[in-house]
Design a protein that fits this description.
single chain; mainly alpha; about 75% helix
């Protein structure tokens, strides 16, 4: 909601990309640093460190002046059926990229540091590309990016199940991050445009988070069931299922 209030529609794609780039640059060393901590000290130290960082992250929020907006609590849901279906597809693709794919890399290479290097290099390349996508999406039709980019992501994800070497994983992850950014920036731009048009913007964002959380619960629940039945092979099944389910995010174009 804050981003929708502070950005101008004409330059919203560029503003979103700057937000993505700043977060990406901060997170650039995260995977590599996290892999080093896991390999050296174990998961417990990493979880403790993350908890401390989360507490410190609350400090800057006290300095931000949020725009005042009167809203009365209600269960009114301004999202359409197409919005909900699209959010499910988008959430599945995000889970696939941020959870299933890193797990697939680790299971294939069995090295935390290799995983950290791959994700960090992909984030580095993606940081430069994100800003360009933001500019492009401001001057070109966002729906074209979302439409063709989503088809490309689906096809490429299915092809990735055949990747089996360190350098191939680097190339596959970089290309995947670039394709995801090519879709995510204009996709989020379309979402923010809907938020600004809605007379119940807070309700729109609230229900969006509810359905995103529910979508993640469904997808990861299916993964848990398949993992109990098929073990490691379930990762390939989830990549195929997730890639196909990601096509549902195209329903954002129905509105």
């Amino acid at each position: 909601s804050l981003l929708s209030k502070l950005t101008v529609k004409r330059y919203r794609g560029e503003s979103i990309s700057v937000d993505y780039v700043l977060r990406g640059l901060v997170a650039l060393l995260g995977p590599l640093f996290g892999a080093f901590i896991i390999a050296t000290y174990g998961f417990q130290v990493l979880f403790l460190l993350v908890c401390v960082l989360l507490l410190f992250s609350l400090i800057p929020l006290r300095k931000i002046q949020f725009p005042k907006q009167r809203n009365h609590f209600s269960f009114y849901n301004p999202l359409t059926t197409f919005d909900i279906i699209s959010l499910f597809g988008n959430c599945v693709l995000n889970c696939l990229e941020s959870i299933i794919w890193p797990l697939f890399i680790y299971v294939s290479l069995k090295d935390y540091l290799d995983l950290g290097w791959i994700i960090s290099l992909a984030l580095l390349f993606n940081s430069f590309f994100t800003f360009l996508v933001g500019k492009w999406s401001d001057h070109h039709k966002k729906r074209i990016f979302v439409k063709y980019g989503t088809f490309a992501i689906t096809l490429f994800f299915i092809l990735r199940i055949f990747v089996d070497s360190f350098y191939a994983f680097i190339v596959a992850t970089i290309v995947s991050f670039l394709l995801t950014t090519l879709v995510d920036v204009p996709y989020y731009n379309l979402i923010l445009n809907k938020v600004t048009k809605s007379h119940k913007s807070i309700h729109f964002l609230m229900w969006r988070e509810v359905f995103l959380a529910f979508s993640k619960f469904i997808y990861m629940g299916v993964f848990y069931i398949l993992f109990l039945s098929f073990g490691i092979f379930s990762l390939k099944l989830m990549i195929i299922i997730g890639a196909l389910a990601g096509l549902l995010q195209l329903y954002i174009l129905k509105n």
